[in-house]
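[worker-b] picked up task from shared queue
[worker-b] task type: protein-ligand structure
[worker-b] ligand name resolved to adenosine-5'-triphosphate; SMILES cross-checked against name lookup, match
[worker-b] sequence length check passed
[worker-b] input payload:
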Amino acid sequence: MIEIRDVWKRLGGFWVLRGVNMRVNSVVTLVGPNGSGKTTLVKIIAGVLEPSRGEVLVDGRRPRVPASVLGVVFHTPMLYPELTVRENLKLFAKLSGGRLVGCPLGVCKVLDKPVKALSFGWRRRVDVVRALLPDPPNLVIDEPTTGLDEEARGELLDLLKERGAALLTSPFPLGIGHEVRIEDVQYAGGS
Ligand SMILES: Nc1ncnc2c1ncn2[C@@H]1O[C@H](COP(=O)(O)OP(=O)(O)OP(=O)(O)O)[C@@H](O)[C@H]1O
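[worker-b] inference finished, payload out:
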C-alpha cells in the first residue's frame, strides 16, 4: 500500500504539487499533462526528493523504503552499462536480497550481453526485472510504456497484477489498471 498524504512540492519557485492525497493498493495509472508533476511525485515516493510538506508511507514506512518493500523504475534505467545483464542482476540481487526467478520479460535471451549493447527497450525490460528481484509488494514505474513493445507491456501487466500496489505514470492513457488524473487528487487551482 502506497499512501500519499497531503504532499506539496515547490520547485523553481512554483508549486508543482499542491496537496496530493492518494492511496494505491492495486494497479493505478497516474495521468496528466506534461509538466503536471507525475515524475516529481514518483521521485518523492522513491525517497530521492523530499516533499516540501506532507509525507508518503509505503506499507507504513517512510521516507526511504528498502528495495524489498518498494521497487522503483525511473525513465532512465539504473544499470551498469559496462557489465552484462547477468552481472547487473547478480549485483542488484545481492544488494536487495532478491534473486532472479525464471525469465521475466524474456531477460534470459540477453543475460550475457553487456547492457551498453542493448536497445533502449531491452534496457528498460532488464531494469524492470532489476526492480522486481526482491519481489517487492509495491512498485512505482515512471512512464512504463516507453520503450516496451506490446508483448513486454502485456507481460509487465501480468507481473504488476501480482503486486499489492503498483503506481505507473504515463503522459497518455495506457488502458492499464485504474486511471487517476493527477489534477483530481490535489487541491483545485492546478499549477
Ligand atoms: N529540479 C527542478 N527545478 C525546477 N523545476 C523543476 C525541476 N524538476 C521539475 N521541475 C518542474 O516541475 C514541473 C513538473 O515536472 P515533472 O517532470 O514532475 O512533470 P511530469 O508530469 O512528469 O511531466 P512529463 O509528462 O512531461 O514527463 C515542470 O514544470 C518542471 O519544469
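[worker-b] attaching auto-annotations
[worker-b] The chain is about 25% helix and 25% strand.
[worker-b] releasing lock
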